[in-house]
Write a structure and sequence with these properties.
There is one protein chain. It is built from ten helices and seven strands. It is an alpha/beta fold. It has a seven-stranded mixed beta sheet. α5 crosses α6 and α7 packs parallel to α8. The radius of gyration is 18 Å and the shape is globular.
Length: 284
């Protein structure tokens, strides 16, 4: 089984990369992608804990925003981590998250929530990419709510008065950087309306022109109708179709391998990178 979208505590997951790798072995996965938000910080630990029987695809989920303000997440996989332009783009997004968090906290405190940046930072692992899930964890620790799902439903969703947008590249710019770094670009959960406004099918023409390689079709946030629509878009533009768990440990209900990618589709995807970068374990 192949799962091409997971997170560790280097972004908003709750498992360390080592724990993630061990759970992937236990779940019977043959290939797993580590795709923390806007960072490659967990790559070394994941590779260190890899054992024969499980291949590792290294990547990142890059935060994007369309010109009309729609949030898009782009999975960059199998790219060269030394590519400076891509690293700079991800660093700019990470840096902007700090200022954004201060603004969200200010809105929450004005509404009566006793929460501080220090409270949020206490939920953050060393080197992790800051995000709203860490604020959710802080609100849970303070006793305001009981789960991330509840926090996002009540106060941190995209239409909330507490929501603050942040700097992100456009999907086209992110795709171009991923491709220039030798990797492949797959748009994640493109029709997940629970997360807010979604891109239109017509948007894919410009994404394909920028170099898009695939669409994450099989995801728990997609309805059967969403999947059928996306399969049609993939066929129209000769894109790879993938499936993945979007696993976050205890941070979400998603379970490893609950959706997965067909081996033939993964072979197509890997062939679009400029080098074979799938990591295979040495004897351990």
């Amino acid at each position: 089984m192949i799962d091409l979208h997971t997170h560790s505590n280097f972004s908003d997951g709750t498992d360390t990369p080592a724990e993630l790798i061990n759970k992937a072995h236990a779940a019977g996965l043959t290939t797993i992608a580590l795709t923390d938000h806007d960072t490659v910080a967990g790559w070394d630990e994941a590779q260190e804990w890899l054992r024969p029987g499980l291949d590792l695809v290294l990547g990142s989920e890059i935060s994007c925003q369309t010109d009309d303000g729609i949030s898009v997440h782009m999975l960059g996989l199998l790219f060269d981590p030394k590519n400076q332009a891509l690293r700079t783009m991800m660093a700019a997004t990470r840096d902007n998250r700090v200022g954004r968090m201060h603004k969200i906290i200010a809105r929450l405190t004005a509404a009566g929530y006793e929460i501080s940046m220090e409270d949020v930072e206490a939920e953050l692992s060393d080197g992790a990419t800051l995000g709203r899930p860490h604020l959710a964890d802080a609100l849970i620790s303070k006793g305001y709510m009981k789960s991330r799902e509840e926090v996002f439903a009540e106060v941190l969703h995209n239409d909330s008065p507490f929501y603050v947008a942040h700097y992100s590249p456009t999907p086209e710019v992110a795709i171009a950087h991923i491709k220039a770094a030798g990797g492949v670009a797959v748009i994640a959960h493109a029709m997940s309306s629970l997360r807010g406004r979604v891109v239109s099918p017509e948007s894919f023409e410009s994404y394909v022109a920028a170099g898009l390689d695939g669409i994450e079709v099989f995801h728990r946030d997609h309805t059967a109708e969403n999947r059928e629509l996306l399969v049609g878009v993939a066929a129209e533009f000769d894109l790879v179709t993938t499936g993945a768990s979007d696993y976050h440990g205890n941070g979400k209900l998603n379970q490893l391998a609950e959706f997965h990618t067909a081996p033939a589709e993964f072979e197509r995807l890997e062939s679009r990178a400029n080098q074979r970068r799938v990591v295979r374990a040495t004897k351990r």
